Amino acid sequence: MSEQGLTTQWSASGSKSASTSSTDTGIGAAETRPSGDTTPWQSRWETLVHSLRDIAARYPGVGLASSLAAEDMVLTHAIFSENLDIEVFTLDTGRLNPETLAVVDAVQARYQRGLTVVYPDAEAVAGYVKEHGAHAFYESVPLRKACCEIRKVIPLRGALAGRPAWITGQRREQAVTRGSLPEQEFDSVFGLEKFNPLAAWTFDDIWAAIRALNIPYNALHDRGYPSIGCEPCTRAIRPGEDLRAGRWWWESSDSKECGLHAGNLSAIPVKVLS
Length: 274
Ligand code: SF4
Prior knowledge:
Elements: H1 3-17, E1 27-28, H2 41-58, E2 63-66, H3 70-81, E3 87-91, H4 98-111, E4 116-118, H5 122-132, H6 141-160, E5 165-167, E6 184-187, E7 192-195, H7 203-213, E8 217-218
Parallel strand pairs: 2-3, 2-5, 3-4, 5-7
Antiparallel strand pairs: 1-8, 6-7
Helix pairs in contact: 2-7, 3-7, 5-6
Cofactor: [4Fe-4S] cluster
Family: Belongs to the PAPS reductase family. CysH subfamily.
Keywords: Cytoplasm, Iron, Iron-sulfur, Metal-binding, Oxidoreductase
């Protein structure tokens, strides 16, 4: 299915479910999403669990970096329900939506196993805001990437230190920067193996698994947010827009990575401001 087709479906799903899907906790309820899919997610699921178990055995200390988005909730469910020895951690940038933060509590309640929450250095954040302002990321790509560097990349580097490998929820159809995403690669930016076990999964596969397994998910997904980042840098998408159109929407599509997956960018270097 083309990305265009996916966006059309997303728009229909989001508008249809928006008025009925949120719970009091702000966590979306899987059963409220429209059904009728015919995607073979079950076969992908078996492969996914097998792959994760193999990764855990071969790379003790491996961790899943969760953005708390739908893909990462599928991975989290696989890890926690199969009791795999893989730590799941998430970066609280200090600019997340309440709905996103609520997912942390939802995971604890569902699985009785918590996420590790990683925070940025408070002094570095304060220094950036003091020098550039609280919304400087709108002014230029370098200033935006500098904010991502402080709030995401440096904390991620700390969370990955000493690990032999990490796991992400990236998929190929998410963006032009991810079209050739491999399922395993060496991450030369952070210096360890990197696994993208959902690389071949489609949007339909992800939501079929979430519906069938009643996996908790971010309520923003029901409000037109297929991709979710920090609150000031993410908006709902409109019909016909691609899945990551709501991320840093004021930038061109070939720069829409935050530095966590810098290897996806072929030409634009990350410039860190002093
Ligand atoms: S997504 Fe926006 S607020 Fe979040 S770290 Fe990047 S620039 Fe800063």
